[in-house]
Amino acid sequence: MSALGKLLRTTAFQLTLVYLLVFVVFAVSLLGYFALNTRRLITEQITTTVNTEISGLSEQYAQGGIRRLVIAVDLRSRRPGSSLYLVTTPTGEGLAGNVGSLEPGVLDHPGWLETNYRRLDAPEGSDHRALVEVVQLPGGFHLLVGRDLEERERLFGIIANAGQWSLALVVILGLIGGFFVSRRVLKRIDAMTGTAQTIMAGDLTGRLPVAGTGDELDRLAEHVNAMLDRIEALMKGLKEVSDNIAHDLKTPLTRLRNRCEQALRHPTSDGGYRAALESTIAESDDLIRTFDALLMIARAESGQARDNMTEFDAAQIARDVGELYEPLADEKGLALKVEASAEAPVRGNRELVSQALANLIDNAIKYAGPKGKLNGAPAEIVVAAGLDGDRISLSVADRGPGIPEADRGRVVERFVRLEQSRSEPGSGLGLSLASAVARLHGGELRLEDNHPGLRSTIELPRAGPAGSG
Amino acid sequence: MRLLVIEDDRDAADYLVKAFREVGHMADQAGDGEEGLQLALDGDYDVLIVDRMLPKLDGLAVISALRAQSVETPVLILSALGQVDDRVKGLRSGGDDYLAKPYAFSELLARVEALARRRGSRGEETVYRVADLELNRLSHEVSRAGQEVQLQPREFRLLEYLMRHAGQVVTRTMLLENVWDYHFDPQTNVIDVHISRLRSKIDKGFAQPLLHTVRGAGYMIRDGAR
Question: Which of A154, A187, A215 is the last residue in one of the domains?
Answer without folding.
Answer: A154
